[in-house]
Design goal:
By secondary structure, this protein is mainly alpha-helical. The protein has one domain. It contains eight helices and no strands. Helix 5 packs antiparallel against helix 6 and helix 6 runs antiparallel to helix 8.
Length: about 250
């Protein structure tokens, strides 16, 4: 990073902070797109045989982008808050998740063997989901603040939409880990199950029939996600596109 220290908000001017947020939003949208595409298109080999060479390669590539996404979430959060404690805690938790996940899930050589995989995955996702919601809440406040339309707000709007789909996928994954089969089918816990949960989440956001018959809890949460998707679209159109564009914006 060009700026040292944990909080960028205190160190950058308003225009510099806006450019930093624009860069961070763009980077996250790119990684989000890659994660979603991988989850939607490469899940079949994982479901058929997660131990095959193809599946091992997919897991390795997905893990790399997942670790990158975790760092970018933390990097984006630094633009929104001056709380050093919050930034350090989230960095520590994300670093712990990435390191532990790498040691446990590395497909070519398992460095740490976990006997109770279900509990391990529950802990990982229980730590990750609140962080995703925290970043979303800060980003929402950011894009709906200010009196001008700027490029960072547009990229932020796209970032939040994709982040919400991924976050709901994490929530569905958490539920299916706690109660396997909740999605309507049994998938191997880990990346195979997670990819199907992300697919289900974006089907709900896109108004597409996911083809599953989940339990009532997931079905009801899906309704909330679908309502959010429609409401968010209306808010973006009504709020952001109605703002005047900043004449002095320098991207």
């Amino acid at each position: 990073m060009r700026i040292s220290g944990f909080s960028l908000k205190k160190l950058l001017s308003r225009s510099e902070l806006q450019r930093e947020k624009l860069k961070d939003y763009r980077n996250i949208v790119l990684i989000q797109a890659i994660i979603v595409v991988l989850g939607l298109t490469l899940s079949e080999p994982l479901i058929e045989d997660s131990k095959s060479e193809v599946s091992k390669l997919i897991i390795t590539v997905f893990s790399f982008f997942g670790a990158t996404y975790a760092f970018l979430l933390w990097d984006l959060l630094r633009n929104f808050t001056d709380s050093r404690a919050l930034i350090i805690v989230i960095l520590g938790v994300l670093a712990g998740i990435v390191i532990t996940g790498t040691l446990v899930e590395f497909p070519y050589y398992q460095l740490i063997h976990i006997t109770d995989r279900q509990t391990y995955l529950l802990i990982i996702h229980s730590l990750l989901f609140p962080i995703e919601i925290t970043v979303i809440s800060f980003a929402l406040r950011d894009i709906f603040s200010g009196g001008f339309m700027t490029s960072d707000k547009l990229w932020g709007a796209a970032c939040i939409f994709l982040m919400f789909g991924i976050s709901f996928g994490s929530l569905y994954d958490l539920i299916t880990i706690a109660r396997p089969g909740s999605l309507g089918q049994n998938f191997e816990l880990g990346l195979p199950n997670y990819s199907e949960c992300v697919t289900y989440s974006f089907c709900i956001l896109g108004g597409i029939d996911p083809g599953f018959e989940p339990v009532r809890l997931i079905r009801n949460i899906s309704v909330l996600e679908a309502v959010w998707g429609g409401l968010y679209g209306m808010l973006i159109i009504g709020k952001l596109l109605g703002l005047p564009r900043a004449e002095n914006e320098n991207q």
